[in-house]
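Example 3.
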Amino acid sequence: MGTAGHALSGAARSGALLRAAPALTSVLFLGPIGAGLAGTALPAFGWLPAIGGEALSLAPWRALLDAPGFAASLRVTLTTGFAATLLSLGLVVLFCAACHDRALFRRAQAVLAPMLATPHAALAIGFAFLAAPSGMLARLLSPWATGWTRPPDLATVNDAAGISLVAGLLLKEVPYLLLVTLAALNQVRAPALMRAARTLGYGPVTGWLKAVFPVVYPQIRLPVYAVLAFSLSVVDVAIVLGPGTPPPLAVLAVRWFLDRDLALWFPASAAALLLAAIVAASIAAWHVGERLAARLGRRWIASGRRGGGGGAAASLAAGAISLVVALSLASLAVLALWSFAGPWRFPDAMPRAFTTTTWDAHAGALAAPFRATVAIGALSTLAALALALLCLEAEARFGLTPGARALWLLYTPLLLPQVAFLFGLQVMLVRGGLDGTLAAVIWAHLMFVLPYVFLTLADPWRAMDPRLARNAAALGAGPWRTFLAVKLPVMLRPILVAAAVGFAVSAGQYLPTLFAGAGRVATLTTEAVTLSGGSDRRVVGAYALVQALLPLAVYAAAIAAPPIIWRNRRGLAVA
Amino acid sequence: MSGLVLRAARIALGERALVGPLDLAVPHGEVVTLMGPSGSGKSSLLAWICGTLDPAFRAEGVVAVDGEDVTALAAHRRRIGILFQDDLLFPHLSVGGNLAFGLPPSVRGQDRRARIEAALADAELEGFAGRDPATLSGGQRARIALMRTLLAEPRALLLDEPFGRLDVGLRERMRRFVFDRARRLGLPVLMVTHDPEDAASAGGAVLHLLAGGAVRRAEPDGEVADALPA
């Protein structure tokens, strides 16, 4: 009787724990954001007693507005943010509309998924190596086409208008939005809608835009907002490719936060808070734009115009997407090339000789950030997986149905500028004596890893055949045994993919590592971005290449493992 | 030759012959029914006729409408309408928006609204233009789907088991609704189904698709000639 009572209360305890999982998860990853925002908002109005700010005032805002080049900072932030979002969404929509019935459309997913694992910073550095005045493109064209025998005096990267920044952002945002759209297309019976439109006389492009896009867009709305927020507030890509004087607002804030003069923390906080307001207002403006576009779109649909065969649009879209893919691959290739380059003078297209000198010299220095990247990535991914799985299990067991609000909560860290809450978080960590520890960095990464892990895992998990669990219960298995012995093994593939995505997200984090690590925790990303300002392309190339290849290797392992583990289980084979 | 004509039509999936060889003429105002078990390739034949057949299939032969060979035309240029078992109303458009989607762009302004109102009246759904299609009953949705197809001014109409999803009590009403309007417009109609009552209600010629792709005309007493291999 006693043991039975114990078992019962044990089960009740674990059930209660599970029931609390969603709330616990929200606190763990939204708590720091709220605290961080507050910790940034107070210094923005002069309040930070630790460095002598003991009265509320508007002085930080005056300092921000009076900073030289503030207006240009603001302008370039808005233009690059909106340009990158509009262009990447436009390109993705055009590609889907024009190429949905082509064979290459079905292959796109396999090509794009690994591209997404590549960190922003590595791609940006590679792209800079391509596009810089002394970069690969100029070398390939010189001197025979351009006549240049020395690098031209042109701002092809770090240009004041931010064109190269937008291009660098596109390399990453286009694959992201395209993958999200492809996933959404699987949920809306797109082929059936398309069949109806085609047999009513609609051309493929017009038919897709009128019959499928309006149904798909609501499903990709939050990812589009995330792209907009990211493009407006990106720091690492902007350091590598963006204008330097004046820089975009996010970079300006980070520069001030990292300055030796602590008094600059006040205007830096004001800039970070302003950026948060800009992002919120931009999302609101985008939403209004959606309404207008929908109204115009409904009129266009009601007109009954059928559109043509769309051959030109298809060529254009396929060409543009191919260009993005080719530039990404070339960016990675040029990193490798530089890391093995011997003497390499402009305008030679190839180094005089290849050597492992760079690698030999920096292998030792690379080891520490490599280990830190792996440890932080693995632990934050494991934590995120555990929380996501517990939330999904709680959802299934207690019949919880997360609504739209839960989805918005999940997207919160992706819709807020990182710089707006990371400084406040650092202040909080300092107070708790946690700043600069590995645990703090892992916690900061968790905020960004968890949404991606959860979103990747949720759809396949919710689509799992419910009869499996019911059958297990009928065979006498308790809920935890069902979870461990039935659900987890069946879901191995999506779990590993989610883990690979989580690891890639962690490996790419720049700002959270910098702030939570108090500059004392070095990862491949922080090292590569820091070095990118220097002049030795061989060293930068080596760091950026390792940074790019590590998440790719993890992704490849995640894809390769299930077929090996399940080699005798045809029911779990890839469809 | 007028109406819908198929010549030497043949459809295969890999090594498996699904349909054909098939020669068929559907004159204006008549309904030809093609019967066969599910998975036999009936729907693939219709998909091929309207130009939406998945490239995984191999198809040969000629589709002609009113003497014009449309085999090489893209789906949207053929002007062959089709109704599916699913009504496939667009969920983002109102009932009126769905009808406007079908109406050719050459009909403008006041005419456009009048044609949509007339279609709603014909479907006995006056005043439904602003409604969300999701709030309609199955029968109402099916009638709107037919109206949308007819507003696109097709030269032939294909029916892909269009009554299978309806309640049994509704089916006969919907059959009469569809066949009456197709006959009034003089459309050649090709219907595939596995429900003998659909064929009986259509009243036209009945063909049976056999395993291996052969097609046989049903005898008046309903027996299928050559239905079994000799």
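The longest strand of chain A covers residues 47-48. The radius of gyration of chain A is 25 Å.
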